[in-house]
Amino acid sequence: MERNGRFEHFRFLGDKRTQVVYDVDETIDEETMAKITELAESPFGLGFGPDTLAEARNRGYRLAE
Questions:
Q1: pTM for this predicted structure
Q2: What does the pLDDT average to over 17-38?
Q3: What is the CB neighbour count within 10 angstroms for residue 15?
Q4: Which of 14, 22, 25, 17 shows the shortest CA–CA distance to 59?
Q5: Which of 30, 32, 60, 65 is most buried when burial is the number of CB atoms within 10 A of its CB?
């Protein structure tokens, strides 16, 4: 998937509202891609530093199914 705007350098994108993290590089589902695009354009998106799943989990986020 092509990465959007302010999150173009992040693989993992978190949703502050639901504490869910999306793996942008591994997403193939159209519905999930639409959610990621909407999230990237909203103020509720969050990138992690370092950009790893371990860091997202450390902050209380769980991987989207």
A1: 0.90
A2: 94
A3: 19
A4: 14
A5: 32
